[in-house]
Specification:
- By secondary structure, this protein is of the alpha/beta class.
- It folds into three domains: about 1-40, no CATH class; about 40-285, Rossmann fold; about 290-505, no CATH class.
- About 40% of the residues lie in helices and about 10% in strands.
- The protein is built from 22 helices and 14 strands.
- The protein has helices at about 45-50, 60-75, 90-100, 110-115, 145-155, 180-185, 190-195, 210, 225-230, 235-240, 265, 275-280, 290-300, 310-325, 340, 350-365, 380-385, 400-415, 425-430, 445-450, 455-460, 470-485, and strands at about 15, 20, 100-105, 125-130, 160-165, 170-175, 185, 205, 215-220, 255-260, 280-285, 435, 490-495, 500-505.
- The protein has a five-stranded parallel β-sheet. It has a three-stranded antiparallel β-sheet with strand order 12-14-13.
- Helix 18 (about 400-415) crosses helix 22 (about 470-485).
- About 40% of the residues are buried.
Length: about 500
């Protein structure tokens, strides 16, 4: 049985159901953590559990009841899920309320795994299990021979332990080498060597699905499972039992089985066998953010930014991603993932690259507070080129395509943010007094070089650069306006020998 570790309850930090004392260090810091096991004050025997009035519920009923309670109370059952409120979430909630196993169909990076993991939040925070049970059986209903025997021998003194909901969610990435033994189980040669006969059900070593009894099993990229392995799931989903090498053991499992798949795998390549598709009660389609605002929110929420990145630059990143999804130069069959914008995968992506460029510039120029500026966007195409698959015939034009789409995203963002602002005054002033920018030009120098015109006051107000003594926000706002004037051919610019950019009329 896994021990749950809790710190004192006044601190709300937690990682995967494992919580830490106030004086402990987070495990991702790479330093040692002192664990202090604490268990909730709950019944410790099956007799005490019955006396407490505890009612056993199947896992699907538990999820349904908790979901309905959250909806009645106005609580968000899906924290961190953005852009699905009116599309995916209602379908998902209806499927869960109906008690259906389900598969999420969607392109890469649409948040399918994030959505599946959020299902654990709909389980009861603590669930009773028989102490020492290999598959987490409910104390009222032992199902393996060893637990049935112990329950008969100990009666009301059968010991009970409590498992946190995070430990009742199990996730498996489907890979071609996944075996039936991994998912369902197999004969354990060690148990046979201990003297048990091959016909003894207690020689079975249970796989991932039985060990998730009374919990949620999520299989990512289900079509990647070999067809003969998919067959092993048929009994689990329909009869709710397992078969291992011809054993007559009937194991009534209580699981919610969910999966993810790309729609082309699910419908065109035929990688999910028909009987398994038929057993899913619901297929829910996901999508990329339909509007710009949710995409920007996703970037801000998910990106690990090492410097301040203003919203207008996050909008540039989001628009850049959306332009890539619509571009005929990009192979849309491979998908332009939301990961491209937030870099939750292996590579450093757009928003994090911009923040890193700002931090590097601060180190070079001695700025106290790194603050991202449009000049930092120049590093994005080179870093992210490897994350995009281009259409055939675009060989050699990859950088040109990315730079063109980035300029479009920048112009669209500036046009939207600065609509109604008279920028001609700024263009005229800069034509007589050029402004130098670049990754080696500190923000205070950019601000000092700006002309004193009323348009800059309005630009600062529109782009959140008011009310601060830090020159970073003003420099970032002004650079966006200057870049927009250049892109609309109202200003020219040139690159000096040292790499700086000079804007002039």
């Amino acid at each position: 049985m896994t021990t749950n570790y809790l710190y004192n309850q006044t601190d709300s930090r937690a990682v995967g159901g494992t919580r830490f004392r106030d004086d402990a260090l987070h495990p991702r810091s790479g330093r040692s953590v002192e664990f202090v096991p604490v268990t909730p004050d709950l019944p410790r025997t099956v007799g005490a559990l019955r006396a407490s009035g505890h009612v056993q519920r199947p896992v699907k009923h538990e999820i349904r009841d908790n979901l309905l309670a959250a909806l009645r109370e106005g609580r968000d059952p899906w924290p961190g899920i953005v852009g699905f409120d009116d599309t995916v979430v209602p379908q998902l909630e209806r499927a869960l309320i109906a008690g259906h196993d389900l598969v999420l169909l969607g392109e890469r990076g649409q948040g399918k795994t994030r959505l599946l993991r959020s299902l654990a939040g709909l389980l009861d925070e603590w669930a009773p299990v028989i102490e020492g049970s290999e598959i987490g059986e409910h104390p009222y209903e032992p199902i393996v021979p060893a637990s049935i025997r112990r329950a008969a021998e100990l009666g009301d003194e059968l010991p009970v332990v409590w498992v946190h909901r995070d430990h009742r969610y199990t996730e498996k990435l489907a890979t071609p080498d996944t075996s039936v033994a991994d998912l369902i189980g197999d004969v354990d040669p060690v148990k046979v060597a201990e003297g048990r006969s091959l016909g003894d059900p207690e020689t079975i070593h249970f796989g991932l699905v039985p060990r998730s009894h009374r919990g949620i099993v999520a299989i990512n990229e289900l079509p990647d499972l070999a067809e003969r392995i998919q067959v092993a799931l048929l009994n689990v989903m329909e009869e709710r039992d397992i078969q291992v090498r011809g054993y007559t053991l009937r194991l009534p499992l209580d699981v919610l089985l969910v999966a993810s798949a790309n729609p082309e795998d699910y419908t065109n390549r035929g990688r999910i066998i028909t009987p398994l598709k038929d057993r899913f009660g619901a297929a829910v389609r996901t999508h990329y953010p339909l509007e710009l605002a949710p995409e920007v929110e996703l970037v801000a929420q998910e990106a690990d930014l090492v410097a301040q990145v203003p919203r207008h630059l996050l909008e540039v990143v989001a628009r850049f991603t959306r332009h890539l999804r619509d571009s005929s130069a990009v192979d849309q069959g491979s998908g332009v993932s939301a990961r491209f914008a937030v870099a939750v995968a292996v590579a450093v992506a757009a928003a994090e690259t911009v923040a890193a460029a700002a931090l590097r510039r601060a180190a070079l120029t001695g700025e106290d507070t790194p603050y991202a500026r449009p000049v930092d966007l120049e590093s994005v195409p080179a870093v992210l080129r490897g994350k995009i698959e281009f259409a055939s015939g675009e060989e050699g034009r990859e950088d040109e395509v990315l730079e063109h789409l980035l300029r479009r995203a920048t112009a669209d963002t500036a046009r939207f943010a600065l609509r109604g602002v008279d920028l001609d005054e700024l263009a005229v002033a800069v034509s007589t007094r050029p402004v130098r920018t670049g990754e080696r030009i500190p923000a205070q120098d950019v601000v000092a070089a700006l002309p004193q015109v009323d348009a800059l006051t309005e630009i600062a107000a529109r782009l959140g650069a008011e009310g601060t003594e830090d020159p970073g926000p003003m420099a970032s706002a002004a650079e966006l306006a200057l870049e927009y004037l250049f892109l609309t051919r109202k200003l020219a610019k040139d690159e000096s020998d040292d790499g700086d950019t000079v804007s002039y009329g």
